[in-house]
From TrEMBL:
The UniProt record lists the keyword Metal-binding: no
Glycoprotein recorded as keyword: yes
Cofactor requirement: FAD
Lineage: Eukaryota, Viridiplantae, Streptophyta, Embryophyta, Tracheophyta
Protein name (record): FAD-binding PCMH-type domain-containing protein
Length: 507
């Protein structure tokens, strides 16, 4: 597979081409007075808006409809300019608005500015959601007038639908209903030829690939049709912290066995953090009384009582501070504020666990890793339930039957001080240490917790060279993704540092 030389453009022809096809006010060039404001508007990892680390795009296109997206693709291909597509801007490595290749001339297509409608069909229990909407906007639109309607996606309301759905979408209802991609029934996409396709027009393989194969590889997904779900009008939320002195090591060791096999109405995730603490956060799709009975029987070690129950609607649970990291505010403020939760500088990595990690290892983690300078958090999200019933090849997300939980390591720092040296050392050494305790051969990772350390395409990324990271994210599905890529974008127009390379089979 050879990548066509798209690096030589100076961009003038591209801007001219755009001017002929897209209203001027939707294109921000580097000389526009608000160019930087638009560029940083949805950057969630501030380390990528320090001037030295981000080479700005040629321009930012903020399409209002499909024809503007099609025009950007057609002009880009004709004039030798790559496109980075941004929906919510949460990519941990900033791939939606930056390129690590110094010679790459690229523009950003920012769907979050103007393409974020949610159209709900209550009779059919479906909704069309534009990629530029956030999951908070989706949740609000579907459930504001009906507390029995919900959708299973992530926990932070500012996350963009476009990137999130492209990579899977894990949340507090994954054990009951699966990932966001498990409930997508149609989509619209602009492909590398600039054609606008729906799910039927895409064909089975491409429709399969965009539901979990990672963003930025197959085209620009404009909108998604999702199946809405029924939940009880009142759900129960629980938030219990336990320190090491209160038995956190034993409770966590036990949690690994219990959480993936609980009734699927109950999800308990854990945040391990500074202060020798494990925070157990639960969402139960039912009443407090039934939850207490289940916990007494199956997880008495946590010591939960009815005093821990917080009854609320599902929509409130999606906006509740402990689940969303959001600050206090009204439902609307928390779910609809796209600028909320500007994070510290972060670096994330992930693992999957199929065999419970021994108690001694957890003891070590608490005693050795959390007193360290630069220590961050480890977030554990249980699988099991619905996830066990889906085959690894049903969608590109392969981490299904038998997975106990997904691990996310996050390091945080601010601009002052040591520029993150301690935090980066903490996450790197912890990740090395964990290698022997997690799924391996290959060691697994979640594409939505993007991590360029596990490997990246070079300028001429091939199927073989991409295996090093591709098989960690997609295991056996990597090959099918690369075959789909070869069929729909053989010249590799849509590419980034971890996009799927085309697998061109030679006879
Ligand atoms: P962004 O716009 O940065 O895009 C991410 C990638 O997808 C880029 O490669 C981009 O080019 C591509 N892309 C974006 N839109 C596209 C489109 N329309 N068509 C094709 N490609 C597109 N995950 C999870 O599963 N559960 C969770 O609870 C959370 N919570 C969470 C909280 C916070 C604060 C962060 C920073 C991240 C998460 N995530 C998460 C991870 C999140 O799912 C992941 O970062 C998504 O890719 C973010 O999607 P955005 O649209 O916001 O990102």
């Amino acid at each position: 597979t050879s990548v066509p030389s798209l690096a030589s453009s100076d961009g003038h022809g591209f801007l001219q081409c755009l001017r002929e096809k897209i209203p001027n006010e939707l294109v921000y060039t580097q000389s526009s007075s608000n160019f930087i404001d638009v560029l940083v508007s949805s950057i969630k990892n501030p380390k990528f808006f320090i001037n030295a680390t981000v080479r700005p795009p040629l321009c930012i296109v903020t399409p209002r409809d499909a024809s503007h997206v099609q025009a950007a693709v057609v002009c880009g291909r004709r004039q030798g300019v790559r496109l980075r597509v941004r929906s919510g801007g949460h990519d941990y490595e900033g791939l939606s608005y930056r390129s690590v290749w110094p010679s790459e001339v690229f523009a950003v297509v920012d769907l979050g500015a103007n393409l974020r409608a949610v159209r709900v069909d209550r009779l059919k229990s479906t909704a069309w959601v534009d990629s530029g909407a956030t999951i908070g906007e989706l949740y609000y639109a579907i459930a504001k007038n009906d507390s029995r309607v919900a959708f299973p996606a992530g926990e932070c309301p500012t996350v963009g639908v476009g990137g999130h759905f492209s990579g899977g979408g894990i949340g507090m209802m994954t054990r009951k209903h699966g990932l966001a991609v498990d409930k997508i029934v149609d989509a619209t996409l602009v492909n590398a030829d600039g054609d606008l396709l729906d799910g039927a027009g895409m064909g089975e393989d491409l429709f399969w690939a965009i539901r979990g194969g990672g963003g930025g590889s197959f085209g620009i997904v404009l909108s998604w049709k999702v199946q809405l779900l029924r939940v009880p009008p009142t759900v129960t939320v629980v938030n219990i912290g336990r320190t090491v002195d209160q038995g956190a090591v034993d409770i966590l060791t036990r949690w690994q066995h219990v959480a993936p096999s609980l009734p699927s109405d109950l999800t308990i995730r854990v945040i391990v953090k500074q202060g020798q603490q494990a925070l157990f956060q639960a969402l139960y799709l039912g009443s407090c009384g039934a939850l207490v009975a289940t916990m007494d029987e199956q997880f008495p070690e946590l010591g939960m009582t009815s005093a821990d129950c917080q009854p609320m609607t599902w929509l409130q649970s999606a906006a509740t501070p402990f689940l969303s990291f959001a600050s206090n505010g009204t439902l609307e403020e928390v779910l609809l504020d796209r600028t909320a939760w500007t994070s510290a500088f972060t670096k994330a990595k992930s693992d999957y666990v199929r065999r419970a990690i021994p108690r001694a290892v957890w003891k070590d983690i608490f005693s050795r890793w959390f007193p360290m300078d630069g220590s961050g958090q480890i977030i554990l999200e249980p699988h099991g339930g619905f996830m066990d019933s889906v085959s690894a090849a049903a969608t590109p997300y392969p981490h299904r039957n038998g997975v106990l939980y997904v691990v996310q390591y996050i390091a945080y720092w601010d601009q002052q001080g040591d520029c993150g040296a301690a935090a980066k050392s903490w996450i790197d050494t912890l990740y090395d240490f964990m290698g022997q305790n997690v799924s391996k051969n290959p060691r697994r990772a979640y594409v939505n917790f993007r991590d360029l350390d596990i490997g990246q395409n070079d300028d001429d990324g091939t199927f073989e060279s991409g295996k090093v990271w591709g098989e960690r994210y997609f295991v056996g599905n990597y090959r099918r993704l690369a075959s789909v890529k070869a069929a729909v974008d053989p010249t590799n127009y849509f590419r980034n540092e971890q996009s799927i390379p085309p697998l061109i089979e030679t006879m």
